[in-house]
From TrEMBL:
It comes from the Bacteria. This is UDP-glucose 6-dehydrogenase. Gene3D superfamilies: Cytochrome c1, transmembrane anchor, C-terminal, NAD(P)-binding Rossmann-like Domain. Pathway: Nucleotide-sugar biosynthesis; UDP-alpha-D-glucuronate biosynthesis; UDP-alpha-D-glucuronate from UDP-alpha-D-glucose: step 1/1. Substrate binds at residues 156-159, 215, 260-264, 268, 332. Residues 325-437 form the UDP-glucose/GDP-mannose dehydrogenase C-terminal domain. NAD(+) binds at residues 30, 35, 86, 121, 159, 274, 339. It comes from Polynucleobacter asymbioticus (strain DSM 18221 / CIP 109841 / QLW-P1DMWA-1). GO terms for molecular function: NAD binding; UDP-glucose 6-dehydrogenase activity.
Length: 454
């Protein structure tokens, strides 16, 4: 099938590459000429396992192209995915200007029937706005508004596993209108996703608004589990229980399940913080407060400081002259994404208290450099206190303790003899509970996990 993806960012690129991989002819549009130039010269502007190879393969096969040409992009796809950014507004709601602009461009150029798919995470009711924008443009040109139908098809991609998630989805959610054009759109979506449903049907068809809400509900539920576990972990520390035992004890209940029950330094990234806040905002616009969700957000803000709190408890409030190694900068492993990464809060707070930081991350260091420049704007003295090194062990040299903020695989089984030799004091503050407290004790390492009774 002929598919256009409007927006060659994270979601757009993964969607485009994976649909091309299934044999579709995909046209990816982006208005940023630099991004398109990178893509057309064989580069990929984001890091995502497997994506570069998939893009190369499909470009070479002539199934995937990148361009800034709006008219050509609208002409190309019978199905037009809108996968542009929806950054948070100052008040926490999603900024829809790029989604609506993309819709208008489609309306301005289309001459044949099109299915318009909202792939970006957009608040309930956005499909109506997209539909209105396209209809207005069609009417201006005297064309029938029946030419298009808007579908909601939210993505459930995890960064670092996005290609895998797209190719082997738990479920596909498709929301369509009940008009004749909507029914035709549903059939086209069914055909497009048929290869993903080969072994069993994974698609849930529903109305547009339910599909839009499903995306937010899923992320809000997952964020709720994390904040809940973070609060319980903090309680476990106080009462002397081990949250890891509790996690397994409750996860074994099939109604609860094991996933997303890991306490840590708070959730980050581009989705959870933004989506939780946007859903709460949507509720407020409708005169409702989502009290649980507001608490989820508040708990998460506090949790980003948990390691700093533990460090203060151990060393006191004044950390002047102290040096900390920090392993892991990205908000989670297998990505270079630094958006809302807890490491940024930890670094800011430790530097504020006088400490120096030597950080290491397998992938995110170039991205982290930009973020530190932003975070320390106007504080060049602070910025000087943060450095990065190309090797995790080198980060430890002469440090008073190791702080772990992201659970990259390379940190799971380090050479602890070396760790102890390099640190001036064998102390680890582990925000991801990577190690067993008893094993650490046997090695003679002072270990501070999250909710691990130590
Ligand atoms: C998430 C959703 O999982 C995905 O379906 C959606 O499309 C986008 O948002 P992502 O942001 O890539 O994906 O990361 P995810 O792996 O879900 O982790 C989100 C955050 O929660 C990370 O900061 C992670 O460290 C944290 N987390 C996750 C925990 O603290 N504990 C857990 O048990 C799981």
């Amino acid at each position: 099938m002929k598919v256009t993806i409007v927006g060659s960012g994270y979601v757009g690129l993964v969607t485009g590459a994976c649909l091309a991989e299934q044999g579709n002819n995909v046209f990816c549009l982006d208005l940023d000429p630099k991004k398109i130039e990178i893509l057309n010269s064989g580069g990929v502007p984001i890091y995502e396992p497997g994506l570069k190879e998939m893009i190369e393969r499909n470009r070479a096969a002539g199934r995937l192209q990148f361009s800034t040409d709006i008219a050509a992009s609208v002409a190309h796809g019978d199905i037009q995915f809108i996968a542009v950014g929806t950054p948070p507004d100052e008040d926490g709601s999603a900024d829809l200007q790029y989604v609506v602009a993309a819709a208008r461009n489609i309306g301005r150029h289309m001459t044949t029937p099109k299915v318009i798919v909202d792939k970006s995470t957009v608040p309930v009711g956005t499909a109506d706005k997209v539909s209105e924008a396209i209809s207005e443009e069609l009417e201006k040109r005297g064309l029938s508004t029946e030419l298009c139908s808007v579908v909601s098809n939210p993505e459930f991609l995890k960064e670092g596993a996005a290609v895998e998630d797209f190719m082997r989805p738990d479920r596909i959610v498709i929301g369509t209108e009940s008009t004749p054009a909507g029914l035709r759109a549903k059939e086209q979506m069914r055909r497009l996703y048929a290869p993903f449903n080969r072994h069993h049907e994974r698609t849930y068809y529903m109305d547009v608004k339910s599909a839009e809400l499903t995306k937010y509900a899923a992320n809000a539920m997952l964020a709720t589990r994390i904040s809940f576990m973070n609060e319980l972990a903090n309680l476990a520390d106080l009462v002397g229980a081990d949250i890891e035992a509790v996690r397994q004890g409750i996860g074994a209940d099939s109604r609860i399940g094991f996933g997303f029950l890991y306490p840590g330094t708070g959730y980050g990234g581009s989705c959870f913080p933004k989506d939780v806040s946007a859903l709460s905002k949507t509720a407020k616009e409708h005169g409702r407060e989502l009290k649980i969700l507001d608490a989820v957000e508040a708990v998460n803000e506090i949790q980003k400081y948990i390691l700093v709190e533990k460090i203060e408890k151990r060393f006191g409030k004044d950390l002047l002259g102290m040096k900390f190694a920090l392993w892991g900068l990205a908000f989670k492993p297998n990505t270079d994404d630094m958006r809302e990464a807890p490491s940024r809060v930890i670094i800011q707070e430790l530097v504020k208290r006088g400490a120096t930081i030597v950080a290491y991350d397998p992938v995110a260091m170039p991205e982290a450099k930009h973020c530190f420049d932003l975070d320390f704007q106007g504080n060049s003295e602070g910025l000087k206190k943060v450095s990065m090194v190309a090797d995790p062990m080198a980060a430890l040299d002469g440090c008073d303790a190791l702080v772990i903020a992201t659970e990259w695989k390379v940190f799971h089984t380090p050479d602890f003899d070396q760790v102890m030799q390099k640190l001036t004091r064998p102390i680890i503050f582990d925000g991801r509970n990577l190690y067993e407290p008893t094993a650490m004790k046997e090695l003679g390492i002072e270990y501070h996990g999250i909710g691990r009774h130590n």
